[in-house]
Design brief:
Oligomer: single chain
Strand order of the largest sheet: 6-5-4-7-10
Order of helices and strands: HEHHEEEEEHEEEHEHEEEHHHHHEHHEH
Number of helices: 14
Strand content: 15-25%
Shape: globular
Number of strands: 15
Radius of gyration: 24 Å
Structural class: alpha/beta
Length: 404
């Protein structure tokens, strides 16, 4: 069939590029073993990718001859980090944080634009472009060098209306023309994703959910939310609102009506991070630090896990029961293989909190998924945005079918 050898070459090219991303610099011999290609074929492949600007020679191996190791004079090859760049934005009510990564995934520039107050000091489009341009400049690039941008926000943009939903606390982002304005201002393709979904993507690619196709990620930091991954793919729902579990009515919390106006619901009121300082006071813990409630909650949970007795133990146990109450509803409907606990108000509790939630969930749910702590702890939503942008960029740049 005409074109089949060309297609096979393109498939081998992509497999080789993915292996170079995974393993780092490889010799011709080692790449041949990993791909199953002969050494001459691997050499031709590397020459083709080098000519296309996708691979660079990085020096020679010096580890000696051994099983799977290059000889001391073996030429090593790696993905050319300058082949393409992608960007991600993580948007919160307090700031817009942008980062640029090269094609290997290394972050090469970051920039934050503070956005304090209930009313934005400048239009959202200017916030976005200022943050992006700052990260691009920090990377030593220009805006046109960025192939793709992924923006993560609380809530989700309704695919039917283009308006942001489930995030009334994000000022300036609810204009019906916002997406059109951003498209006009930015030269690259732009995608939008819920921030907790991006955290789940980061955990799936880099962290605690690697190798898992069915899992739920529970996030608790500024707000309580979840991401649902089924069959390896994010489940977003009809309006993009799948995972907005803060609105979930649960036992132990009063019914919250008009939840979108309140921007809260039963599960948020029972186990959101804003509950932790109040619970601490009720238990007679009064050495409560100052600061934003999410940071205060994380500090209190960390201290409770560290002390592990008396009122601090009760704080952790009560919090775990509230978390397990909402998770039981999710488990009953979704029956996931794995639950990842993420966000500072969860990960700061470490193994003591994880174990308590696991024990409570065994009592409240029929199925018993494994609970693990999130492993991507440093700006996970931004990391997820970069991973999403990089995946699409690699699909485009690594497609050697277009090469002559």
């Amino acid at each position: 069939m005409a074109g089949t050898p060309r297609m096979l070459r393109a498939m081998n090219d992509r497999a080789a590029l993915d292996l170079l991303l995974e393993h780092g610099p490889l010799s011709r011999t080692r790449l041949g073993k990993l791909t199953g290609l002969s050494k001459p074929t691997a050499s031709q492949l590397l020459a083709r990718l080098e000519a296309a600007g996708l691979v660079v020679a990085t020096g020679t191996g010096g580890t000696g001859v051994g099983e799977g190791r290059p000889g001391p004079n073996a030429q090593l090859y790696a993905v050319d980090p300058t082949a393409a760049y992608a960007a991600g934005l993580d948007v919160t009510p307090e700031r817009v944080l942008a980062a640029v990564a090269d094609i290997t995934g290394r972050t090469v520039g970051e920039y934050a634009v503070p956005t304090p107050g209930r009313r934005p000091a400048e239009p959202v489009v200017r916030q976005v472009t200022t943050a992006l341009d700052g990260a691009v400049k920090a990377a030593g690039l220009v805006r046109s060098d960025v192939r793709r941008l992924v923006i993560g926000t609380p809530g989700a943009f309704d695919p039917g209306t283009g308006r942001l939903r489930y995030a009334s606390h994000l000022p300036g982002w609810h204009s019906p023309t916002l997406l059109d304005e951003l498209a006009a201002a930015l030269p690259m393709p732009v995608e939008y994703e819920n921030d907790v979904n991006l955290v789940a993507l980061a955990e799936q690619r880099l962290g605690a959910a690697r190798g898992h196709d069915d899992f739920v990620l529970l996030w608790n930091e500024g707000g309580l939310g979840a991401a649902v991954v089924l069959g390896g793919r994010l489940h977003r729902g009809f309006t993009g609102g799948a995972g907005e579990v803060g609105f979930l009515p649960v036992p132990g919390a009063p019914l919250v009506r008009q939840v979108t106006k309140a921007n809260s619901g039963g599960f948020q009121e029972l186990a959101g991070s804003q509950v932790i300082p109040r619970l601490a006071r009720e238990l007679g813990i009064f050495d409560i630090p100052d600061g934003p409630y999410a940071e205060v909650a994380a500090a209190l949970v960390a201290r409770a896990a560290d002390i592990g007795s008396g009122a601090h133990r009760q704080l952790l146990a009560t919090y775990a029961t509230g978390l397990a109450t909402g998770l039981a509803a999710l488990v009953s409907v979704l029956d996931p293989e794995l639950i990842v606990l993420s966000g500072a108000a969860l990960t700061s509790g470490g193994e003591p909190l994880r174990g308590l939630v696991q024990a409570e969930l065994r009592e409240l749910a029929a199925s018993r998924p494994r609970l693990v702590l999130g492993a991507v702890l440093e700006r996970p939503a931004l990391r997820g945005a970069l991973e999403s942008a990089l995946a699409a960029t690699r699909d485009e740049v690594f497609d050697t079918l277009t090469l002559r």
